[in-house]
Amino acid sequence: MSIDRDTFENTDEDELADLSVPDQVLGFLAANEHRAFKAREIASQIGADEGAVSTALSRLKDRNLVEHKATYWAVTDDAERLDGYSGYERATDLFNEQLGDEDTESWREHAPSEPHPSVENEQ
Fold first, then answer.
1. How far apart are CA 44 and CA 50, in angstroms?
2. What is the pTM of this model?
3. Which terminus of the chain is less hemmed in, N or C, by CB atoms within 10 Å?
């Protein structure tokens, strides 16, 4: 995963230590928690080898941190389990540092007023 030049120059070496592939995979899936991806898509997004990503996904599944259906993978919706995984916290901190914290109000301002057509109306 690349970083910008400013981060490279202004961040100490310990903070720049590479995340492990499982940490990168979990961080990516957590950042995209409402979507599921194929292993090759994840590999492409985080700049890792597809084989390493597939191995990481299998290990994360064994720890119940990700879910798998057909060829798609998604982060677990068990917040307690995620919070208990130390790599998740480190990945989240690094993503927030690089990309900034999420602004809930900004999301709400840009959210559609109507539900997506794929969402069934439960009324």
1. 8
2. 0.59
3. C
